[in-house]
Amino acid sequence: MMLKMEGVHAHYGHIHALRGIDVEVQVGEIVTLIGANGAGKSTLMMSLFGNPKASAGRIVFDGEDITRVHTHEIARRGIALVPEGRRIFPRMTVVENLQMGTAHADPANYDADTARVFAMFPILQERQSQRAGTLSGGEQQMLAIGRALMSRPKLLLLDEPSLGLAPIYIRRIFQIVKELNRDHGMTILLVEQNANQALRVAHRGYVLQHGEITLAGTGAELLASPEVRAAYLEGGHA
Amino acid sequence: MSAVVFARHAMTPAERLRDASWVAFVGLILGIPLIGLTTVDVGGKLAIETRFGLLAAAVVAVFFGRLLLRWAVDQARNRKLDRDRASTATAADRARGTQKLVSVLGWLALGASIALPIAFSDNRYVVDTATTVLIYVMLGWGLNVVVGLAGLLDLGYVAFYAVGAYSYALLSTQFGWSFWEALPVSGAIAASFGILLGYPILRLRGDYLAIVTLGFGEIIRIILVNWTELSGGPNGIGSIPRPSFFGLEFTRSAPEGQQTFADFFGLEFSAMHRLIFLYYLILVLALLTNLFVSRLRKLPVGRAWEALREDEIACQAMGMNTTNIKLSAFAIGAMLGGFAGVFFAARQGFISPESFVFTESAIVLAIVVLGGMGSQMGVVLAATLLVLIPEFGRNFSEYRMLLFGLAMVLIMVWRPGGLLAHREPTLRLNPLVQDAGAKEAA
Which of A12, A151, B1, B322 is least crowded, fewest Cβ atoms below 10 Å from its Cβ? Predict the structure, then answer.
């Protein structure tokens, strides 16, 4: 078991954003979390990261309870977050951005990890000394993923990686997610609004509504379920 | 249609004439009360007199001035377009060019600053002003850590300058500490004030942070004014000992059993010796500051500051402890400000709360912003400009601050990112990795 959330509640001030979430991620799985705007997807991601802290419930990562652990400590235990909206460091170069991903990693691996990221995303190597803010949206997303991989995480969290990208990049990003899992054995928790694509790459999925999990199942089951089809697929993005 | 044409394309002669006529017309309207009418004293009474000749001359000058200005702007724009089209230089090449220019400029500035007191060894005014410039350069470099690198807007930086100055003043007058003993201790006291300020405002950013730091600066000043037993209140602290040259005093006659600087080197006593010594002292302090900050920038802590400026959430997601990053930035910035304060107190020999008003914070912040956030050379340029403009402006008496404001507005119009906005990357890739990456990709 890589990650287990049990009855997690979270609040933003008076807003009760998560109401008893149970989510499990097994080693080597891609798990996706779909839901409409404001359903609490990003809150779930952030409270997993301790910001805001869960007000009730338990979060266990890799056998350790991380419910009360500081945000920066959680990252050090092997969870890497690719935040919503990419959040690269725009005035720093591509290489410097990648280096920031290793803030708590073993410096001995730095060269090998950079080479690995460049092999995965050759465009980043071409642009290595460019300021990250001058990259296109899709390139920035690749940089954000590359930066997260630099710390050799056990669990990779992707928060809406397809947000605001051109269709060609959206396809590429989902392809990357699949490759990371298949070729590198990366365990991935993927939050998406693009339900169709997300459920296709995921082994399992959860549907989040108003801060509660309303449906759970394998990717194929959810894709076929009438509720999901009605709410997220038909008339939505194909 | 807008009367005054801001044409993107080159203007036709008719457009130029119309544009200039409109500007001249506006000049005429404004000029009637400003130039056309004047009050004169006629036998103890005020009377109005007209000066339409002068007004006409002014309007004509505005008309032709506007024609010339538009023409010059168009010329400059065309030349730039041509150059852009012709040049095949990439962004990277241009960045390298800027980098080279900055480093050449840096060495020139260093050479000039070492030679300055030799060239002007009998000009008290020049050496004194140059010392002031260097104090601001040092303050700018200190604040650059907080504002330029870590992106934490601090409007109360003068507080640390004051803490450093008062620490030295008290340590030396009350406990007889020498300059060199008091310098590190005062720096440490200023740094602890930095942490003291940093702790309660860890969660604040942007405007809110600015307001609290502004308040902190005022609190320190008001304490200094009111805590008379400690700080002497508004009267300040006087007769602060001057730094000596390895124990040699810069006085006309030495106390018993000691030698003065002039005696020791067999020179004739001159008050300039001390000024030149002080100048070199602040030059060394400033250079050490620069070296220290440039080194820090290349270390993980420096990159963490810059990452914090760029995106705090991303920093946390990377596993960085933002609390420590912020506190270290505040502490180091405060320490450098404290050092500058120690030097200030030692140079003046007298300090009072009047030297540590908000205007000082504003000027130091202006130096950092005008210089280009995070740019070390930019701080030097901006500090030189901001100290020298009011000095040159002395002849303009009451218009001096107007000139100062105008210069600041113009800098921001022409160089919105600061004089030297270019940021030097602190990390380059190991060439081996390039090959490895290429091989793996192939």
Answer: B1
